[in-house]
Specification:
- By secondary structure, the chain is α/β, with parallel strands linked by helices.
- The chain has a single domain, classed as P-loop containing nucleotide triphosphate hydrolases (Rossmann fold, 3-Layer(aba) Sandwich).
- The chain is about 35% helix and about 25% strand.
- It has ten helices and 14 strands.
- The strands form four sheets. Strands 6-7-8-3-9-10 form a six-stranded mixed β-sheet, with helices on both faces. Strands 2-1-4-5 form a four-stranded antiparallel β-sheet, with helices on one face. The chain has a two-stranded antiparallel sheet with strand order 11-12.
- The longest helix is centred in the middle third of the chain and has 16 residues.
- The termini are far apart.
Length: about 300
């Protein structure tokens, strides 16, 4: 039996009395696509922190590519092949798109000279941003910033890509573009774990979905199975939701049942402030110190 690429074994994380993860066990295979859903404050972004090394667990073990990485920081895990994005894209606004991605290749991927330039160029091509390489990042719109965030993660050379709500705030056509970019990345053998409130983006791409609530998983299976689970319907979708899904992209846009779309819209409209945003990370607008090993300098938002 093939060993999983990522494995969390009874991982626990608490902030005082607040339980972020309670004895979580979770594994992802090489090349797998997994979507993670759950209400605000469920600990989804904190879970990414535990995987990427931004947060240290109070108990349990995190393994990646057959190695125990529990005690490794995010820079070391990035070098091993864990790349991630953050909910709020904050590129170095005075640097060009190419320079932003080059920083990721050098600081996160540990590449130098021609190898780093090649990795940055490839990441821009894979995300459809090659034509914007010389544009200052501060001039980018939301979709372009989201794609830049993905490009920076790709430039580190990941085996596992963690996407944190990269479809949030985008229009349906923009979501379709983003889904196709992620589909292409996964087709190259890169495993993807995608946290998203735009459920239609997940149902059109992932083969597996989990629901996180109260620090534990309450559903794990195909998207249709998870969205039809009574407990998931109660705490996330609403008890009257028709959880039927469609994995295709008819007429260039993701599809999901009208009830799920309506629930999504109601939820997104009320998400001005996210209870779980205290553990979000974002890139500062300052150039990173050259001694920093992170793909991008990140600070925890208050």
């Amino acid at each position: 039996m093939t060993s999983p690429l990522l494995e969390l074994n009874h991982v626990t994380k608490r902030f005082g009395r607040v339980v972020i993860a309670e004895e979580l066990s979770f594994s992802v295979g090489a090349g797998e696509t997994v979507g993670i859903v759950g209400p605000n404050g469920a600990g989804k972004t904190s879970l990414f922190g535990l995987i990427s090394g931004d947060l240290a667990p109070n108990a349990g073990q995190v393994s990646f590519a057959g190695k125990n990485v529990t005690r490794l920081d995010s820079a070391a895990r990035c070098r091993l092949g864990i790349g991630r994005t953050y909910q709020v894209p904050r590129p170095f606004v005075d640097m060009t798109v190419f320079e932003n991605v080059l920083v990721a290749a050098q600081q996160g991927g540990g590449l130098r000279r021609k190898a780093s330039y090649a990795a940055a160029t490839e990441a821009l091509e894979r995300t459809g941003m090659a034509d914007e390489a010389n544009v200052p990042a501060g001039r980018l719109g939301l979709l372009a910033r989201k794609r830049l965030e993905v490009a920076r993660a790709l430039a580190t050379g990941p085996q596992l890509l963690l996407l944190d709500e990269v479809a949030g705030g985008l229009t349906d056509p923009e979501v379709t573009v983003l889904v196709e970019i992620v589909r292409g990345i996964n087709a190259e053998g890169i495993a993807v774990i995608w946290i998203e409130h735009v459920v239609r983006a997940l149902t059109s791409l992932v083969s597996r979905m989990t629901c996180l609530y109260g620090g534990e998983f309450i559903g794990d299976g195909t998207p249709a199975e998870v969205l039809a689970t009574p407990r998931v319907r109660e705490v996330y979708l609403g008890s009257d939701i028709d959880a039927s899904t469609n994995s295709s992209l008819p007429e260039g846009r993701p599809s999901v049942s009208p009830d799920v779309r309506a629930a999504e819209s109601d939820r997104e409209n009320g998400e001005r402030i996210r209870p779980d945003s205290t553990d979000d990370h974002a890139v500062t607008d300052e150039e990173p110190d050259s001694t920093d090993d992170h793909a991008v300098t990140n600070e925890e938002e208050a």
